[in-house]
Amino acid sequence: MDLFAYTARELHQKLIDKEITAVEIIKSVHDRIDQVEGQVKSYITQTRETAIAQAAAVDAKLARGEALTLLSGIPGIIKDNLCTKGVKTTCASHILERFVPPYDATVIEKLAANDLVMTGKANMDEFAMGGSTENSGFFPTRNPWNLDCVPGGSSGGSAAAVAAGEAIWALGSDTGGSIRQPAAYCGVVGLKPTYGRVSRYGLIAYASSLDQIGPITRDVTDSAHVMNVIAGYDPKDSTSINAPVPDYTKSLVNNVKGLKIGLPKEYFVAGMDPEVEAAVRKAIEQLVALGAECREISMPHTEYALSAYYLLAPAEASSNLARYDGVSFGHREQGNDIIDMYKKTRSHAFGTEVKRRIMLGTYALSSGYYDAYYLKALKVRTLVKQDFDKAFEQVDVIITPTAPTTAFKIGEKTSDPLAMYLQDVCTIPVNLAGVPGISVPCGFAGGMPVGLQIIGKPLGEETILRTAYTFEQNNDYHKRSARLGG
């Protein structure tokens, strides 16, 4: 039985019906990793012995008649920028190649309380800077649908692992689309929660005002279940929202009657793959046929969002990454003096894209340029947020493509950073505004998956989950899988 191919909800039911054991599930996943990991390369670190022990503990719990949560014993992979006590956390960077955190991120603690079975740590773009996982300091991850293509990024290892059956669910982080875009490229579901809805404590920061942790899963139901575990207030995170957390599974209702959908004209622009646009428009027509109402809206500052993001995020990155200097922890190169040591350590251990963004950010924050660049970008961010606020006075959700194209070929855009950055044009405004967004599979273009992005009001995860669930229940795109390894 290919247990690796089931959803978390299906495996949970089989567990409580005692048709299978948690150890059998993890062994099926390990067999799948042995079969395809050499091609996909989703993992930086595997934790096999720990995972077997965690699964055995779940089986013992079940034998004692104790209740299981939906995630008990269900194998998941964790993006390698989330701190895991006693397990290497590298951020896919040579500067943290041997770093073993002394503590768990809050989300890991919450998952552990739900009998986490962790398969390992997922590959990513170094320090989450990139949209293809080609910027990993170790190796690129490949898309299970076409091994010549990227899986997206920066959570590419997480999305590829779920799509390839190397994990049942995953955690990623999303700063400008890093959960939603790889989910779209790999034909899975990716949810970026409202900023502050999930604690960032223990997430190694890229851009602190934009980063958010969220799930990557096979279907919308699993996404709701993971959110039930990881969402909530955390006093250790000063940006955490102190608000009650609903049961997200109650929003899994197959009904969009009366739902008002906004279609922003600025998101359907020149340069978009016509097949991607066709798949998205067909999905919207389906939702309308199911009872939703659709209207065109305008979000006039969308065109400035990309420019603002690539000033704000690098500025925050230049500050956050200043701590990696070879002194307290991480990699160190020997130098003639401390300044020489700093230069050699950071020059040798940071990759090209990370250095590019540090330099961009440092320049934007420097004396004489702060007002012209960083401050102006902050003002543009406010205008982008106001666009969303005004739109949500008229509509319940906003729907766009997740990305303007399907997954591109490995190496196709590495020499043109701007072309790479443009892949995030549909996702970045959501992070600037701090609102939630989910990507669900909605079709194919050239044989590769297409993602539908559903954006909600702040703390509007329930509405976007209901919309995504309704679409999913009336289609079978989420049930199709990459035919990797036969």
From TrEMBL:
Q: Where are the transmembrane segments?
A: none
| Assigned keywords, A-Z | ATP-binding, Ligase, Nucleotide-binding, Protein biosynthesis, Transferase
Q: What does this protein do?
A: Allows the formation of correctly charged Gln-tRNA(Gln) through the transamidation of misacylated Glu-tRNA(Gln) in organisms which lack glutaminyl-tRNA synthetase. The reaction takes place in the presence of glutamine and ATP through an activated gamma-phospho-Glu-tRNA(Gln).
Output the PANTHER family linked to this UniProt entry.
Answer: GLUTAMYL-TRNA(GLN) AMIDOTRANSFERASE SUBUNIT A, TRANSAMIDASE
Provide the protein name: Glutamyl-tRNA(Gln) amidotransferase subunit A
MF terms in GO: ATP binding; glutaminyl-tRNA synthase (glutamine-hydrolyzing) activity; transferase activity
Catalytic residues, per the record, are 79, 154, 178
- Give me the reactions it catalyses: L-glutamyl-tRNA(Gln) + L-glutamine + ATP + H2O = L-glutaminyl-tRNA(Gln) + L-glutamate + ADP + phosphate + H(+)
